[in-house]
UniProtKB/TrEMBL annotation:
Top-tier EC class: transferase
Pfam families for the chain: PfkB (PF00294)
GO molecular function: ATP binding; metal ion binding; ribokinase activity
Protein name per the record: Ribokinase
Cellular compartment(s): Cytoplasm
GO biological process: D-ribose catabolic process
Signal peptide feature range: none
Gene source species: Pseudooceanicola batsensis (strain ATCC BAA-863 / DSM 15984 / KCTC 12145 / HTCC2597)
Record's catalysed reaction(s): D-ribose + ATP = D-ribose 5-phosphate + ADP + H(+)
Amino acid sequence: AVWNLGSVNADRVYRLPHLPEPGETLAAQSHRTGLGGKGANMSVAVARAGSRVHHIGAVGPDGGWMRDRLADYGVGVDRIATVDEVSGHAIIAVDARGENQIILYPGANLAIEPAGTEIALADATAGDIAVCQNETNAQAAFLEAAGLRGLLRCYAAAPFSVDAVAAALPLTDLLVLNAVEAAQLELGMDRPLPELDVADIVVTLGAGGCRWIRTAGGTVREFAAPRVEVVDTTGAGDTFTGYLLAALDQGMEMAQAIGLAQKAGALMVTRLGTADVIPERVEVENYFAR
Ligand code: ADP
């Protein structure tokens, strides 16, 4: 199983004729609310890839619908606490040309009880996979507890913060990051990736595919991405990582797991939306079986 300490956000999307100017009050033409947050996206991706996933995190009293939606998608939600804070949410303004402006309020995602993440892993067994991203608190407590239980620990370094990655690295077995984050990390640590203290690193390169670095021995393997028509790249990285971890959880070797994750990420960019449209395993397999 996969144990994911991650954010749960309400994405509130407002369509406007233009982005608001300072001091301007502007009526939106439409509004819709969707499930988002890197953590929630990743949990949905793991479930769609066919692995059991337990989401660990927190929502506010207003977040019941998000827990319900995750449960509908097959995510284990027993370890999502309800705390006395507003749920994490993003106010997303989109103008007529598709340009956006986003206000993110982490809310309950930063009110996770660190000791609770350890308790949440009580039923985890050696060989399971633990993952977290940088949208919650309690990352170190969670990764430490996961290490003691013999889980494979994965850290997705997004949204990027050099302090957060530096703190997580000694507690991480597998680091997943995109090209921008990889460049920021090398700069921030003043060391090339293969010299970092983590066993495996996967750098995603968008349409360029990805690169897998095994630091012991310094082997680097490049993987080309499938070619697809790009509609919306939102959620590609979360889909890739969720599928990668599900594949590893199902016993695939890294190279094979990367192959599946790349297909899922590529199919995801042909779709508009985030958590709600992450492809199912059979869709991924059928799409690329042609
Ligand atoms: P992020 O969304 O975190 O910035 P990337 O853009 O690197 O991450 O995308 C993650 C993965 O999704 C890539 O490694 C690739 O497998 C797949 N992917 C993303 N964009 C494309 C694309 N245009 N064509 C094919 N695959 C893509």
